[in-house]
Specification:
By secondary structure, this protein is an alpha/beta fold. It has two domains: about 15-155, 3-Layer(aba) Sandwich (Creatine Amidinohydrolase, Chain A, domain 1); about 160-390, Creatinase/methionine aminopeptidase superfamily (Creatine Amidinohydrolase), CATH 3.90.230.10. It is about 35% helix and about 20% strand. The chain has ten helices and 15 strands. The strands form three sheets. Strands 4-3-2-1-5-6 form a six-stranded mixed sheet. The N and C termini lie far apart (about 65 Å). About 45% of the residues are buried.
Length: about 400
């Protein structure tokens, strides 16, 4: 198909050599797992291996990666020029809106002589509908599970990837500071989000994997509350959490505020969150298990008597994301029982929030990079709860 003047790789996040190295490492893992051909459908893994990115991943797309030979990329016709601009792959298998994408994919696999090979797909991926998997199995026979193969390559970021996450963190700082500055009596949580996202986008952010989590008053006491035109009243809490994105790499940040008089219990809880976050960060050291930061944070929470108010993991991996999430929490968590060793180049969002359900939430977070000796926080926004006169 004619590229119509769209330059190959013109909008790619990385040079071709970066993707060549990623594909080579992925093929080594496939061979070790006894897989001849892997079907990749998750947009994060597709982006990692090829650079392809589009908000149109709600339509079927698949990278078919063999251990040997050229890969095949099955994509909707409308996405073809996006594909050319973002990747260094010279050709694609393009289907039209009148085609059945799964049948199209099967025909590609058969035409390449791969149908008799050991084929695998990520059976636990968010973007693999049951109907798609069953149709593939019906036409190709037994299909293995490649879950986690590409993800293990994504856990430790390269210097280039860390640079993009650090850039995203500057966008988050800009947005969070704007949101905090917009707090005023009689304003709304919509005002805060408008300020946050407007400033983050003005600073450079692209569209993010998940919307900001912003609420005011008693609604802050409900986890994952979002803005709903709530009015900011005197002597009430404000909760703000957001992410920003640079070349699909995300950083996130959580802060809280109180307009007017805060009850002592909220002040004490917020100080505990500060201490818990610092304890988690202090516990991040190469060679330690991913459980260590969580256990350190949990110990602070427990000593303060807030065990029942903190029912969550301390953190999760962050990096490449598409909706519905801004994190890589399905890859790796900082939580009890996670024995994966911390390594330099890993990146985590550590949101420490304590709440009295239905009344208020206080919390603080940082996006951090694991270093040779510990970790480095990427955010520059003041951590303590912002206390404002009503």
């Amino acid at each position: 198909m004619d590229s119509a003047g769209v330059a190959q790789g013109a909008e790619s996040a990385f040079p071709k050599t970066e993707y060549d190295g990623r594909v080579a490492r992925a093929r080594q893992l496939l061979e070790a797992a006894g897989i001849d051909v892997m079907i990749v459908t998750g947009p994060e893994n597709i982006f990692y291996l090829t650079g392809q990115q589009t908000p149109g991943y709600y339509t079927f797309q698949a990278l078919v990666l063999p251990v040997d030979g050229e890969p095949a990329f099955v994509i909707r016709q409308l996405e073809y020029f996006n594909f050319i601009a973002n990747t260094f792959i010279s050709g694609a298998q393009v289907y039209g809106d009148g085609d059945q994408p799964v049948n199209f994919l099967v025909n590609v696999i058969k035409s390449r002589g791969w149908a008799s090979k050991r084929i695998a797909i990520d059976k636990r991926g968010w973007f693999l509908p049951i109907a798609t998997y069953e149709a593939l199995r019906e036409q190709l026979g037994e299909i293995g599970d490649s879950a986690g193969i590409i993800e293990q390559l994504r856990i430790v970021k390269s210097a280039a990837e860390l640079g993009k996450i650090a850039t995203a963190a500057t966008y988050v700082d800009a947005g969070m500071r704007a949101g905090l500055a917009a707090i005023k009596l009689g304003g709304s949580d919509n005002d805060l989000v408008a300020a946050m996202m407007g400033q983050a986008i003005a600073a450079g952010s692209e569209y993010v994997g998940m919307e900001p989590l912003v609420s005011v008053g008693r609604r802050t006491g409900v986890p994952h509350g979002t803005w709903r035109r709530g009015k900011i009243a005197a002597n009430e809490p404000i909760f703000l959490e957001m992410a920003a994105c640079h070349d699909r790499y995300h950083a996130a940040l959580m802060r809280c505020a109180w307009l007017g008089d805060a009850p002592q219990i909220a002040i004490d809880m917020e100080r505990t969150c500060q201490d818990g976050l610092q304890a988690a960060m202090d516990a991040i050291k190469p060679g330690e298990p991913c459980a260590a930061p969580h256990l350190a944070c949990q110990a602070v929470i427990d000593r303060a008597g807030y065990t029942e108010n903190f029912k969550k993991r301390a953190g999760y991996s962050i990096g490449i994301s598409f909706a519905p999430d801004w994190g890589e929490g399905g890859i790796l968590s900082l939580y009890t029982g996670v024995t994966t060793e911390l390594k330099p180049g890993m990146t985590f969002h550590i949101p420490v929030a304590v709440r009295i359900y239905g009344r208020f939430t206080v919390g603080v977070s940082e996006t951090v990079v694991v270093t040779d000796k510990g970790c480095r926080a990427l955010g520059k926004t003041d951590r303590p709860m912002l206390r404002l006169a009503a």
